[in-house]
Amino acid sequence: KAVVSTQSTGSKRFKNSVTPVFSRCGEMVANANGSKVLVRDVNSLQLIQMWVCYDTVRDIVWSPDSNYLASVSGNKIQLWSLSDSAWRSCISETDGGVENVSWSPDSRHLLVLHKFSVFITIWAVEFATQMFIKNPKGSLYRFSGDGKYLAVIERTECNDYVALLSTRTWKLTSHFKLQTIDAAGFEWSPSNMELCIWDHMFEHRLYIYSLDGSCLFTHEIKKPISMGLQCVTWSPCGQYIALGTHTHYLYLINRTNRKVAGEMRVPEQVSGKVVQYYKEDHNAVSGSTVAERLRCTPEHKFQVITDDEISMKYCDIQIKKKKTAKANDNAKEKRVKKYGITGIKWSHDSSHLAVLDASIPNTITIWNIADKCITAVLEFVHNPRTFAWHPQLLRLIIATGDNSVSMWEYDGCWIIELPAECSVNVNHTTWSNDGNALLLSAKENFCIGFLE
Question: Which of 181, 237, 338, 364 is deepest in the core (most CB within 10 A)?
Fold first, then answer.
């Protein structure tokens, strides 16, 4: 059974003001505390570098080679080097402010999306030169997995276009019009040869385009549904595209034969004799000491339900909007309902899917792709805030906002209490690329966990 261990030097809780980030190499972690940017060694947790920015840091971004770090403070972007502590650079964006910052795959260019999506600036870090991409559609731009191309969805005269640029020369290699009414998102295929693009929430269509602009495949959900696709993700192996809808349906599109390989619905009732059903124990006793909590067996935290009929009741999640000062005192509060599949994540080997349905907010279902059926159902006391698959193992980590994380494997499901010295109310989790470390963060602090 896995437990979260502390370092021999003592794993500690660190303060942060933005979500901390692992470096791509997995050996360092960066976080910001106010106007300070700090970099630590993942294994020893020793401070490697610290820089002071002009203002409160609101975002930090690692370069792919783990040598540079970009920090965003107001309308300024400061660049730092891990290999040369004396080197630094600053970019001041006065045209509408900074919306998003990302690195190019070669770690030598920085892409800055301006607020209101006016344009994207491509900065050459070493030469301080710049290029511009006009009319981007928000943050709809992605690099291919091999780093050779940048695809940007543009919006011009009420039409969607794709601009394909070579990252070697930053010149346009292809530009074509889309069949979408109002494109909502896209993903590169794992082969880096195709683009999967889907329409906005009132349409039910998905398209696959080749890099020369040819439409290879179109899929439309013909069942009457109130809204369109809610989430789309390509499997790591590239064979399947998973589609999540507002009506609780999960579709699998087989890229090889361009047909629907599976049409599954998150059920309202399952049998505990057919699926693994784990229900968090409301009256679980954690133990009086850290050692006792770490020795807890799965049964102390989860009940294994084996009833023939287990109900998973759907409900509407309602978010109250605060009244403004100008609002009429007698005016009713507006409510926004969230429902349907809002989260889909593939396991590293494309064999399983973890699915979160907002209509059953305290439950995660795990699906076996080969059998097109549910393998396990995980029911929690509190709603899951985040969940993530291990990058190399069939292991799922779930955080529900308290000082513990839950872990599912084929052998069982249990809760791992965090040691007292690094207790964090976890609402965000990230695995390191090698899977040896787990970043657990809250709004104001974070720690790093190691599973044994």
Answer: 364
Question: Considering only CA atoms, which of 189, 196, 251 is closest in space to residue 218?
Answer: 196
Give Cα separations from 295 to 212, 292, 307 (angstroms): 58, 5, 28
The candidate with the shortest Cα–Cα distance to 137, out of 86, 91, 197, 88, is 197
pTM of the model: 0.86
Q: Count helices and strands (H / E) in the chain.
A: 1, 43
- Residue 110 · residue 122 · CB < 8 Å: yes
Separation of alpha carbons 231 and 181, rounded Å: 17
CA–CA separation, 378 and 227 (whole Å) = 27
* Dihedral in degrees, nearest 10, Cα atoms 187, 190, 192, 193: -90
Q: Residues 365, 341: contact at Cβ < 8 Å? A: no
Each residue of 66-104: pLDDT tens digit? 999 999 998 899 999 999 988 989 988 766 678 899 999
Q: What is the tens place of the pLDDT at every residue in 184-217? A: 999 999 999 999 999 987 788 899 999 999 999 8
The sign of the CA dihedral 221, 246, 226, 359 is: positive
Residue 140 clears pLDDT 90, i.e. is over it: yes
Phi then psi for residue 53, to 5 deg, are -95, 175
C-alpha torsion sign, points 388, 390, 393, 398: negative
Rounded Cα distance between 320 and 336, Å, is: 7
Strand ranges for 271-328 from DSSP E? 276-280, 302-304, 310-311, 317-320
- CA distances 251 to 196, 221, 232, Å, are 15, 9, 10
Cα 304 to Cα 88, 223, 271, 359: the distances in Å are: 55, 36, 12, 23
Q: What is the pLDDT of residue 294?
A: 42
Q: Encode pLDDT of 270-310 as tens digits.
A: 888 889 999 988 665 444 444 444 444 434 478 888 888 88
Tokens at 153, concatenated: 């969805």
Q: Are 128 and 136 within 8 A, CB to CB? A: no
What is the spatial distance between Cα 144 and Cα 147, in angstroms, rounded to a whole number?
A: 5
